[in-house]
Design brief:
10 helices, Rossmann fold, alpha/beta, eight-stranded mixed beta sheet, 16% strand
């Protein structure tokens, strides 16, 4: 049975849904207000910086594993400010270091700008500390971008992530999963119409099937150990199942973690929702194991 906190959150989402018709500027400001509502995790030092010419932050909670985090928001919304509380919680649970970047957003900077920025940041991280193992993690569009970065790094001869963690990843620009129909009545946050709106702005006429925009259709061979976390009440559930299957077929060590009753990127509400904190902790444990720090 869903907790009172979960029930209240879902009711709040349904009462005050994000209206994409308000435009990017208004909704970006709404996203960034989360930085005022949810303070960072305790014991984490946050420092502004740049990576590969991209505005970034470094979250330090210890000398444990290092991660590059890519925020969600449909490639049109979100920032390191809106996701600061989530990123800091990951750093705290890792007892390590998490970098996050403000990659360029659409429609001002359509595909492949976000991929280019992620690759530039990844390249500088490795050039500044050669030989250091670094993992990659992201939510929603940032989950898809984490796959895209990993594929691009492989194809460009850059070091591979030690591990990849994708939260509720968006990996299919065609919005073709059957979960869009089956779960449309239970998902309180996203719909196929929302996904089409975001993809149109991000792709700006580019091929829906291109692998760095829709990693579901990319060559996934050689990717690192991967953890996918998804809620069973989100329309992107099908994306997670399908890419998990594709990863298995490609010989990748992959784990699909299904969370009962959870909505899209429930981790975002970790200060209110126990399952959000538990999911971040589980992701941190997975990364620590891959770095030999369990």
């Amino acid at each position: 049975m869903a907790s009172e906190t979960l029930t209240a959150l879902v009711a709040q989402f349904r009462k005050r849904p994000l209206d994409l018709a308000d435009g990017e500027a208004v909704n970006r400001a709404k996203y960034d207000r989360f930085a005022d509502l949810f303070p960072p995790a305790e014991g984490v030092t946050i420092t502004p910086m740049t990576l590969g010419g991209v505005a970034a932050e470094r979250h330090v909670a210890g000398d444990g594993p290092c991660v590059l985090y890519l925020h969600g928001g449909g490639y049109t919304l979100g920032s390191i400010r809106s996701h600061r509380h989530l990123i800091s919680k990951l750093a705290a649970d890792l007892q390590g270091v998490v970098y996050a970047i403000d990659y360029r957003l659409a429609p001002e900077a359509p595909f492949p700008a976000a991929v280019d920025d992620a690759v530039a940041a990844w390249r500088e991280l490795h050039e500044s500390d050669p030989g250091r193992a670094i993992s990659v993690m992201g939510d929603s569009a940032g989950g898809g971008l984490s796959f895209a970065l990993t594929i691009a790094a492989r194809d460009q001869g850059l070091p591979a992530p030690r591990a990849l963690v994708a939260i509720s990843p968006w990996v299919d620009m065609t919005a073709s999963s059957s979960s869009y129909e089956f779960l449309s009545g239970v998902d309180p946050i996203l719909s196929r119409q929302d996904i089409v709106w975001h993809s149109g702005r991000y792709l700006a006429g580019a091929d829906l099937l291109t692998g760095l925009a829709s990693p579901l259709f990319a060559d996934l061979k050689g990717l690192p150990p991967t953890l996918i976390q998804v809620g069973d009440h989100e329309v992107l559930f099908g994306d997670s199942v399908r890419i998990h299957q594709r990863l298995i077929a490609a010989g990748v060590d992959t784990e699909l973690s299904l969370w009962k009753d959870m909505f899209h990127v429930w981790h975002f509400y970790w200060r209110q929702l126990d399952e959000g904190a538990q999911a971040i902790a589980a992701a941190a444990r997975f990364i620590r194991r891959q770095h030999g720090a369990a």
